[in-house]
Design brief:
16 helices, alpha/beta
Length: 381
């Protein structure tokens, strides 16, 4: 079976790489189609082929233009033109077109209309609310695109139920649990680049967006610092919101020396180094279906604090300390025992690691996905 996996902007490169490699190992001919690789990408295709099909021109100008409005407009124009009139012969040579992400719904609609009925179309709905509340035009019309696919893949019942409520036929929705992932391992240079903690360190890592609740985390930390509790807060990742007011609030309160920041698109090895140096990993999301960041951290064996949104609500009690989503005071209460007790941190970390080891692996995910492909191909006939 020839499979074309599409993630034009490479939103979930580690996920794509893990799934493509496992499907190739199962005997399928797989090509991952994305943008040109960046230095921060850590994909080394094993058994499958990678093709830089999307955003070639805009990515060539990225360093010169920066990542501001001009670059985003250029990307949108390039992608829209490719979807509207670009060649699709390479796509039609595949038996399955599996779209991991639809990066610009108005443009994706044009591409899907050209492909519909000429190929078996599959889409992974990573989150029922595709780009959350801060998506703007990017997700405008996304929900309507779901009707164009022969099969939809979700990672849990929360997403499945959300799609059914929207009117998506249940028989087109397939649940395949998201396995844990492992980022590229930190080198000694990466570890040396992350300062050693002087106090217990909380870490938030990954892209920084409004729905992820970094403001709640800062509010909770300020209340605990003012109450006399000693710990550090590290933020590692690319902001997609203005976090300067949050940073200023920490400095104005006199706790700037307890703040560690590493802001920007970070290599996986650097993120791995930040996790290695942290004591507590925090996921204060306001809403989420499944979290790749959480699943990439389980093997670290660190204490976890999460909201009760999405997948977090179904975690076993011992795996993570949960708090009510959107409630900074509840977050502070959840953090306090872990900050104060190394023994509790160690116990919680061991339970998180054990949970990750008990979850499914990428071989299981690949076989389940291949089975979905076969069913989708039959349903088209």
């Amino acid at each position: 079976m020839k499979v074309a996996m599409l993630d034009p902007s490479l939103f979930t490169g580690r996920y794509d790489d893990s799934l493509c490699a496992a499907m190739a190992e199962a005997g399928e001919e797989v090509t991952l189609l994305g943008r040109p690789m960046r230095p921060t990408d850590a994909i080394t295709p094993q058994g499958y082929r990678y093709a830089s099909r999307f955003f070639r021109h805009s990515e060539a100008l990225r360093e010169r233009l920066g990542e501001g409005r001009a670059f985003r407009l250029l990307k949108a124009a390039e992608y829209g033109l490719a979807c509207a009139v670009g060649g699709i012969g390479d796509l039609l040579r595949a038996d399955i077109l599996h779209f991991q992400w639809l990066p610009l719904a108005p443009a994706d609609r044009m591409l899907l209309r050209r492909l519909k009925g000429r190929a078996t179309l599959v889409h992974t709905v990573h989150n029922a609310n595709a780009y959350h509340a801060d998506a703007g035009v990017q997700a405008r019309g996304y929900a309507a695109l779901l009707d164009m696919f022969d099969a939809l893949i979700v990672h849990g019942d929360t997403t499945r139920q959300a799609l059914v409520r929207r009117g998506v036929p249940a028989e087109r929705i397939h649940v395949t649990p998201h396995p844990p992932m492992r980022l590229a391992l930190a080198t000694s240079k990466d570890l040396a680049a992350v300062p050693d903690p002087k106090l217990p360190r909380l870490l938030f890592f990954g892209t920084i967006r409004p729905y992820k609740g970094v403001d709640l985390l800062v509010e909770a930390c300020l209340s605990l610092w003012r109450a006399g509790h000693g710990f550090e807060l590290a933020l590692a990742g690319k902001p997609f919101m203005d976090i300067a007011p949050l940073m200023d609030s920490i400095r104005r309160a006199g706790f700037g020396e307890r703040l560690v920041t590493d802001l920007g698109f970070l290599r996986e090895q650097k993120l791995d180094a930040h996790m290695a140096k942290a004591d507590i990993l925090v996921f204060p999301y306001r809403h989420i279906d499944s979290s790749g960041a959480f699943l990439s951290a389980l093997h670290q064996g660190k204490a976890m604090v999460t909201s009760d949104a999405g997948m977090f609500a179904s975690l076993p009690e011992e795996v993570a300390v949960r708090f009510a989503a959107g409630n900074a005071s509840a977050l502070a209460q959840a953090l306090l025992p872990l900050i104060e007790s190394p023994a509790i941190r160690r116990a919680r970390g061991g339970q998180a690691r054990a949970h990750g080891e008990q979850m499914g692996d990428w071989k299981d995910m690949a076989l389940a996905t291949i089975d979905i492909y076969r069913k989708a191909m039959v349903s088209r006939v």
